[in-house]
Amino acid sequence: RVLLSILLSILLLSILLLDVCQALSVGPTATVRVRALSPLSVRSAAAAVRVRAPSPRLSILERPDTPLFCLNVCLRIKPFCREEFLECIRQNQKGTLSSEPLAVTYAYGEDETTPDTWHFFEQYVGREGFEAHTQTPHFAAWEAFAASDPFSAPPEVKFFVEDSASTVCSGAAAVRAVLAAGDWTKLFCLDVEMAVKPEAREGFLEALRADQSGALSSEPLAVSYLFGEDNERPNVFHMFEAYSGGREGFAQHAKTPHYAKWAEFKGTEPFAAPAKVGYYVVDLDGHQERLQTG
Question: Would you place residue 182 in the very low, low, confident or very high pLDDT band (cuts 50, 70, 90)?
């Protein structure tokens, strides 16, 4: 009888323990054990984590259907300030593209031939988008760095509004596919300033719009092509161009019929001063993009 009573007690305790474990989703041999997730649940949980990651968007490749307020910026940094500068602009880019609803593009790269010279291209929905950017904590951190005397020459900041909202070229699709696969790539970019003689203005706009139209529709390595007039200086125009395939992408552009017509126009001496051109490379990381989009 005693033995039977003991066995019945053990059985009752086992049943009670099993019920408690099921209610708490823990196993009878572990203090706390998370219930096993199905593969779909694991992927869903991982996707939820990825969506919250604040990483830069593919801003050069996708855009709204309205002309944007743009900046071309050139900064020359003292060599001993380089690492602090890079950390500061990484945080500024991260904050801009992850938390500002009116920010569209924040891209930067080092000049192709001049070390510690950096080119930036930024886009916002209206001037109000840029003004909102200047009120953020990450911009305040940038201002604090800029006040520490890190520049070897005064910063060059040029504001303009795009001539057209059609700026993403046919070659952007191939770049998007590379990044969607989680790979990374580089874009060869141009920062251009052109001062045009007033009498050549209309011919200049016609020729440049024709070159832009050709790049948008027919060049497999052209990714972005846009321009606009300086906000404060009439007849001064700024451009941003981006090509995949390195400098070869731009070289292919220079061999096209539409560029030949643009080059022919340039031969008519329409400029009031020599054009200023900076070449730089922008890195795009598909892994970072997937982290944001899930």
Answer: confident
How many residues does the structure list for the chain? 294
Burial class (CB in 10 A: 0-12, 13-18, 19+), 17: exposed
Q: How far is CA 167 from the centre of its chain?
A: 15
Rounded CA gap, 282 and 241, in Å?
A: 11
Burial pattern 54-77, b for ≥16 Cβ within 10 A else e, equals ebbbbbbbebeeebbbbbbbbbbb
Coil vs helix vs strand at 241: strand
Q: In what order do the strands lie in the sheet with 236-243?
A: 103-110, 117-124, 69-76, 156-162, 222-230, 236-243, 184-195, 276-285
Which residue has tokens 């649940």?
41
Q: What angle do CA 184, 185, 187 make, to 5 degrees?
A: 150
Instruction: Give 212-264 pLDDT, tens digit per residue.
Output: 999 999 999 999 999 999 999 999 999 999 999 899 999 999 999 999 999 99
Q: Return all residues near 222 (Cβ < 8 A) that are at least 6 apart.
A: 169, 170, 171, 215, 216, 241, 242, 243, 249, 253
Cβ neighbours around 106 below 10 Å, total:
24
188 close to 249: Cβ distance less than 8 angstroms: yes
Q: What is the Cα–Cα distance from 20 to 248, expressed in whole angstroms?
A: 68
| Global pTM value | 0.77
Give the residue from 120, 117, 114 showing the smallest Cα distance to 90. Answer: 120
Q: Which residues lie below 8 Å from residue 20, measured CB to CB, with a gap of 6+?
A: none
Query: For the chain, first and last CA: distance in Å?
Result: 64
Q: Give backbone dihedrals phi and psi of 66, rounded to 5 degrees, phi first.
A: -150, 145
Q: Calculate the CA dihedral of residues 64, 70, 76, 77 and round it to 10 degrees.
A: -50
